[in-house]
Amino acid sequence: MTVTTDRLPLWLELSLLAQYEAGVAAAFTALPDDPAATRARLPALTSELQQRFDAALAWQAADRTLLCPDDPRYPPLLRQLADPPLLLYVLGNVEVLSDPQLAMVGSRNPTPPGRDNAVAFAKALAESGLTITSGLALGIDTAAHEGALAGKGPTIAVAGTGVDRVYPSSNRPLAHRIVAGGGALISEFALGTPPMKHQFPRRNRIISGLSLGTLVVEAALSSGSLITARQAGEQGREVFAIPGSIHNPMAKGCHQLIRQGAKLVETAQHVLEELGALIPLTLTASAADPVPAQANPIDRDGLDAEQLQLLAEMGFDPISTDELISRTGFRADEVAGMLLTLELNSVVAAVPGGYLRRR
Amino acid sequence: MTVTTDRLPLWLELSLLAQYEAGVAAAFTALPDDPAATRARLPALTSELQQRFDAALAWQAADRTLLCPDDPRYPPLLRQLADPPLLLYVLGNVEVLSDPQLAMVGSRNPTPPGRDNAVAFAKALAESGLTITSGLALGIDTAAHEGALAGKGPTIAVAGTGVDRVYPSSNRPLAHRIVAGGGALISEFALGTPPMKHQFPRRNRIISGLSLGTLVVEAALSSGSLITARQAGEQGREVFAIPGSIHNPMAKGCHQLIRQGAKLVETAQHVLEELGALIPLTLTASAADPVPAQANPIDRDGLDAEQLQLLAEMGFDPISTDELISRTGFRADEVAGMLLTLELNSVVAAVPGGYLRRR
């Protein structure tokens, strides 16, 4: 599975020099057209860097790829960045990096509903064909990866450490499941690189840079997620944010983004509507739900378009038949008939004052 | 206090004809330059309209004004509308109609936190010098008028009935306090006009038309508040909306407006920042606070550790008791007891489907 281009060693050297030699990284404002000429202007590898160089080449295996810009599998969207990675260490499925992706980011300490939203959006979007990209952090990142896996979609974790140093270590099992699920754990940092604060904003530019858009699920003011969102904007990508109560401190970052022009999204469908113009996507019923049912997604094939519209209008709180008629514009007898069918199929339940959606 | 211009009887006749004679209203797409000529083209008053004409003139008193477009106190912002009122019946302070105003509108059935937000925003904005204009309906309208009064600001209620027919009648005491507080109750409809459905969208254009901007606090999809917001936009005025949980049906109208370009506001300060460019306003400390803080921040000392844990698990979205039990691991009877205590202390509120944190 590994593809070694002739110039891979050259890119690996440039990558190591950029990470470890002061001032070298700043010299790369784009991928060098002639990496050999660039390499010739830089110092020789120290013995420590030579060891890292050897270790990286030796690390390669069937599911361990050193991905350099010469490689046709280098992600095209990353190539557009002002400072693209000179090399990526890829653990898992390297092909997935060129999939249409949505970055999902947010607080490491979300509210429980915020976490649920992340799982539900990721699941619905994965089911619709988007690959979910995030940072393997606690909180929203973890929920996004989990949701994508639940939706049987590949998911990409971009590490702020070496790919052999999963951080936080409690997410090691999740990292394994991501790789086993056809996704990838990637990093531009050398093997063995420990977590260091300054690496995370660099990492964030890759998360947004791989993706058509970045969705911020919950974020406090002055959180790292807002940096990712800003980078997405600077990269010309879409920025989405989920609103929340004005009394929820974890919604304030999202609200700030929306005030600055990010698109407010209430449903996965809202994300798909924006991205659908860019790529072909499969719209699923679950994407249209405020928060798609976690346990039993609706069998879309079993319902007709009007029933789906009725369900979309219902939401997940009790609703009166009159309100449903007013929301859908359907006739009273049509609504009554649809509700009966849906009730017989256990999709809705009669409750005092109206009907409640069960899933 | 009454000012009768020479042409007041003419405007009163036009106003009555527009309300009662089919097709006449449609003829007014702006204020007629020559009301006498316009009047001459229209039929004579029926005996019923003559009675209404006489009653209106007789109704005038110190605090009862018939305000016609010739009057210098006719609100300048109303004059800009495509279809300005030909006459306003004003009970209370007529001068206040030319004050800088913010319209606040929303659901007649808001969530308890939505109602609290309306009170808090109105109070802070009134303290900052804005006059709050609304429609005297139940729910958000009532909360907005109450908040303005609490902020010692004048507030304007625009009725969808005659000013002598307060609707709903339960708001009669509020209407009296509005007038006693230096504000006004106004209408373009003749004295004695009962509440009729078609009158409310007409009334709404006056609410938005008097105001520099319209703030939608909570609104379901396809609610009348969205009509007011649309009219504000068409009138070239600002539209503001308060976001909420994506699981709160009463936030959906606000989210739809924001997606269509309305400004998301989290604090009264956000409103003042936008309107401050148009008029001189006094920024108060309360306006900058996240709304709940000024009212009743949670007294952490008054709650025990388990109650605080329950609140943390609640987040700021509606949540069912079952979900709370599953999240906290507390027993059902423990959760029920805690919720009761918290509800009695106004920390949480019962809402359809469960509970919602108020602060």
Chain pair sharing the greatest interface: A-B, 31 and 37 residues
Distance between the termini of chain A: 42 Å
Calculate Rg of chain A over CA atoms.
23 Å
Which term fits the overall shape of chain A? Answer: elongated
User: What is the β-strand count of chain A?
Assistant: 11
Low-pLDDT sequence parts of chain A: 290-298
Protein structure class of chain A = alpha/beta
Average residue pLDDT of chain A:
88
Helix content of chain A: 40-55%
* Major beta sheet, strand line-up of chain A: 1-2-6-5-4-3-7-8-9
Order of helix and strand elements from N to C terminus of chain A: HHHEHEEHEHEHEHEHEHEHHHHHEE
Strand-residue proportion of chain A: 5-15%
- Oligomeric assembly: homodimer
What is the number of helical segments of chain A per DSSP (H or I, 4+ residues)? 15
Largest sheet of chain A: 9 strands, mixed
Entry summary:
By secondary structure, chain A is of the alpha/beta class. The first copy, chain A, is built from 15 helices and eleven strands. In chain A, the strands form two sheets. A nine-stranded mixed β-sheet of chain A has the order 1-2-6-5-4-3-7-8-9, sandwiched between helices.
What does this structure look like?
The structure is a homodimer of 359-residue chains. Chain A starts with 7 loop residues before the first helix and ends with a strand. Chain A has 359 residues and is of the alpha/beta class. The model of chain A is unreliable at 290-298 (pLDDT under 50). In chain A, strands 1-2-6-5-4-3-7-8-9 form a nine-stranded mixed beta sheet, with helices on both faces. Chain A has a two-stranded antiparallel sheet with strand order 10-11. In chain A, α1 (8-20) packs across α3 and α5 runs parallel beside α6. Chain A is built from 15 helices and eleven strands.
